[in-house]
Fold this protein.
Amino acid sequence: MIGKLIVYGKDRKQALERCRRALEEFIVEGVSTTIPFTLEVLNKKDFIQGKFDTGFLEKMIDEKIK
């Protein structure tokens, strides 16, 4: 682990907005990161609405492979 990002907000919507902004501004050089994938997760309708389960990421990865 190179770093850990923790965000908060008055509600889920604000916390997700802050997380998106922080990740878009995050700079890590020299190694690959999961930032682009995490931004995809944050922009998924089901994730935004809190409608996800333990298989959510696996389904996203499967969709990307197809």
Observations:
- Residues 12-65 form one domain.
